[in-house]
Write a structure and sequence with these properties.
Layout: H1 19-29, E1 36-40, H2 46-52, E2 57-62, H3 65-77, E3 84-88, H4 91-97, E4 101-106, H5 113-123, E5 124-134, H6 137-148, E6 152-159, E7 162-166, E8 171-175, E9 179-186
Parallel strand pairs: 1-2, 1-4, 2-3, 4-5
Antiparallel strand pairs: 5-9, 6-9, 7-8
Helix pairs in contact: 1-2, 4-5, 5-6
Length: 188
């Protein structure tokens, strides 16, 4: 895993996804070197980069121009430009342009999560995996509700990461944003 401090950051763009959360997502994705991955809402490219190190092909998508440019800079910095296509645009529209894939990660949906889940599910290969990261309670509920209508094996994990900062008196634990990782495998 690439350390958080090794990413180029942009104050206009969220991310990168915290290292510990990236580790869990990689585990839940069951990524292989034959997989095609779509990362919608790529932000600074934290997940895109981790997938690029392991997958056959990665499509990295964001509506935010600054996010797309920051992701490209991070890919270049880490020498991972060969198997990644970074696309600026609405994830729902971009899904129409990409053939079937093995893994769909949704980190941002611009209020279109149910539609993205349904469209993404329909384009997932058999046994494909869908992963949604959520920091809002409403997004968590919306994702789980949407997946109930599909033929999936779904798992929900809530993660709270705290990191210790050494002070003169001891170690102070500083909490990061809790994240819910909803992972589902397409079963037919």
């Amino acid at each position: 895993m690439i350390k958080d401090q090794d990413f180029i950051k942009n104050p206009e763009v969220p991310g990168p996804t915290k290292e510990e959360v990236r580790c869990i997502i990689m585990c839940k994705s069951e990524i292989s070197n034959e997989d095609v991955v779509v990362d919608i809402g790529c932000g600074t490219g934290g997940l895109t980069i981790e997938f690029a190190k392991r997958a056959k092909t990665v499509y990295s998508v964001d509506m935010n121009h600054d996010a797309v440019e920051t992701t490209k800079k991070n890919l270049k910095k880490h020498g991972l430009t060969e198997n990644v296509e970074v696309i600026e645009g609405d994830g729902l529209d971009i899904l129409d342009k990409i053939k079937n894939f093995d893994i769909l990660v949704i980190g941002g949906s611009n209020g279109k999560l149910p539609q993205m889940i349904e469209k993404g599910y329909n384009k997932l290969n058999n046994n494909g995996r869908l992963i949604i990261t959520a920091i809002l309670l409403e997004t968590r509920a919306e994702a789980v509700s949407s997946l109930k209508n599909l033929s999936t094996k779904t798992e929900v994990v809530d993660v709270s990461i705290s990191r210790g900062e050494i002070t003169a008196r001891g170690t102070m634990m500083l909490a990061k944003n809790p994240v819910t990782i909803i992972s589902a495998q397409k079963v037919i």
